[in-house]
Amino acid sequence: MTQLALVIDLNVCVGCHACVTSCKEWNTSGWAGPLADQNPYDGSPTGTFFNRVQTFEVGKFPRTETVHFPKSCLHCEEPPCVPVCPTGASYKRPDNGIVLVDYDKCIGCKYCSWACPYGARELDELQQVMKKCTLCIDRITDAKLSDRDRKPSCVLACPASARLFGDVHDPDSEVSIAIRERGGYQLMPEWSTKPSNHYLPRRKTVMHIGQDELTRVDNPLRKEDLTTYTGEETLDDVAW
Amino acid sequence: MHPAFSVIFLTTLIGAGQGLFLAMVTGQLYAIARFLPAQTDQFYAIGSLVALVLLITGLLASFFHLGHPERAWRAAAKWRTSWLSREVIVLPIVMFLVFAYGAAHWLGLTMPLFRVGESLQVDATLLLGLFGTMASFALFVCTAMIYGGVRFIQEWHTPLTVTNFLFLGAASGFMLAAAYSAYISNPLVTFFGTWAVILTLTGLASRSAHLVRNAQLKYKSTVQTAIGVRHTVIAQKAQGATGGSFNTREFFHGQKQTTIETVRLLFMVLVFPIPILLIGAAYITSSPTLPILAFVIQYVGLMAERWSFFAEAKHPQNLYYQSVA
User: Which pLDDT band, with edges at 50, 70 and 90, does A232 fall under?
Assistant: First the structure.
């Protein structure tokens, strides 16, 4: 069974919002209609987004750390938003595990958004249907695209390669290896929704420098000297 | 959560409608058992008509909650998993049975169909009343479980949500039955008033228990589990938008804490003590207007109660939307 998902490396995310704009550009231009905005060039702009980058400050000044945190639908393996949908507009694709909304069946009751602890679903104020990350389903299933391009927009846009995309059920995939070897974790595990998207934790880059490493062997400033021998065995004594 | 008036009207109106229907059937059962004088068929028919009007008004209010009301018929599809879908199915069933019960009384379809034991003559109105009662209880459960079934909103995820909807809805319905009886100078006002007081007191116990429970609630999710960083001090600096989003509009009430506390106090006064005192005063003075006033005040109080029910609910997604910049 395939479960497509994103793995987001918080250690390299710089919070540039390239994934946000790239996602918005791709998904507002597709067959499903625009992701509507209100007051886009005015005071208090607001609109529908599949993906948002949030910023958190961890710790107290001066020992603080900034964590940029991209948040989109986690495509849970046990999606709590799907069973509550009264019309069946929300569903999980059996072939690749992506949670999708059928915009033609959605009645805009917002019940699924109540049943998502992550706030991943947003009602489009113009179309009055619930929208959420599709992992660029129209892109990743498009056989006309090359393998390189057959990835979600956000993944292709990330300049830091903080976003990995692949099948988390395949133990040998890039994403599974990253989760396994780099401490990938899930959000809000207490609700047992089994999110498919994983996050890779921040890691401190620490250099250990010994005293001997501070003096280079070939340091030109080191005082050069002739070795004085006091009768010990030297290479000259080796019998070849 | 943001209290939506469509849902406040839906739940309070159909609650009162179901309660009024239950009151009519209870009155008929008592009359069959000869505990009460038998009423005219017109009494039950008009009572059912008022209940039906309340149910229809509630249904109309619910459409204002939908982005696409014209597709509402689709909502009956997923009754196996969704309480909302179940409500969408049970509500028309209740409406049909209330209509049929009223119509059977109006048309005088009271010839006994069969006999149970020595004395119980079963006619069409009694059968429809019993089916309608079962459907009404099912509707109370469905409506309440829409909220009680959302496990992420811990304030709602309790059986007390179901008992609140049941007792408060039934209380307002019996209160309305008392008001209706008082309006047409029917002596049943004491009977319905007594039941209304009993149900209001039961509702008071249930709602108070709910408030006490929620005051002691420990939230499962924290900002630490939300972003997966193990540190005691985490502050949000940006939420990805400065002008708000669906997440900030739907899941925050946007009111001051003092407003929340005022509304809570308001409904605790309007729903419970005042209607009980008015019904008591109406019993002593045989006033025809006090039961009507009692119902109106309790209904306004129930709207405040439902508003408070929404406003006090905290959704875990709010952890991601704590500060704009």
Answer: confident
In this prediction the pTM is 0.90
Q: Does A106 touch chain B (CB under 8 A)?
A: yes
pLDDT of A196 > 90? The answer is yes
Q: What is the CATH number of the domain that holds B195?
A: 1.20.1630.10
**Are A6 and A155 in contact, with CB atoms under 8 Å apart?**
yes
Q: Does B88 touch chain A (CB under 8 A)?
A: yes
Q: How far is B190 from chain A (nearest CA, A)?
A: 42
> What's residue B143's pLDDT?
97
Q: How many CB pairs under 8 A join A and B?
A: 179
**Which among B83, B233, B316 has the least Cβ separation from residue A188?**
B316
B85 to chain A, closest Cα gap in Å = 5
**pLDDT classification of A32: cutoffs 50, 70, 90:** confident
Would residue A41 count as lying in a domain? yes
Q: Which domain holds residue A52?
A: 4-200
Q: Would you state the torsion angle of the CA atoms of residues B255, B258, B259, B263, taken in this order, to the nearest 10 degrees?
A: 140
Which residues have a Cβ under 8 Å from the Cβ of B263 and sit 6 or more positions away? B304, B307, B308, B311
Put simply, whether A171 touches B (Cβ < 8 Å) is: no
Q: Which of A177, A180, A191, A169 is nearest to A81 (CA)?
A: A191
Residues of chain A in contact with residue B315, where contact means CB-CB under 8 angstroms, are 114, 117, 119
Residue A220 has pLDDT above 80, yes or no: no
The ipTM (two decimal places) reads 0.92
Q: Write the CATH number for A189.
A: 3.30.70.20
First to last CA, chain B: 22
* Residue A92 scores a pLDDT above 80: yes
Q: Which of residues 14-33 of A touch B (CB under 8 A)?
A: 17, 20
Kindly list the residues from chain A whose CB atom is less than 8 angstroms away from the CB atom of residue B238: 53-55
Nearest to B86 by CA among B128, B47, B140, B124: B140
Q: What is the mean pLDDT of residues B3-24?
A: 97
What is the number of helices (H) and of strands (E) in chain A? 7, 11
Distance, in angstroms, between B140 CA and closest chain A CA?
18
CA distance A176 to chain B (A): 19
CB contacts of A72 in chain B (<8 Å) are none
Taking only the tens place, the pLDDT of each residue in A43-67 is 889 999 999 999 999 999 999 999 9
When pLDDT is averaged across residues B163-180 and rounded to a whole number, the result is: 97
Of A53, A86, A117, the CB nearest to B316: A117
Q: How many domains does chain B have?
A: 1
What does the alpha-carbon distance between residue A121 and residue A50 come to, in Å, rounded to a whole number? 8
Q: In what order do the strands lie in the sheet with A198-200?
A: A163-167, A4-9, A198-200
Instruction: Find the mean pLDDT for residues A142-150.
Output: 94
Q: What pLDDT band is residue A138 in, cutting at 50, 70 and 90? A: very high
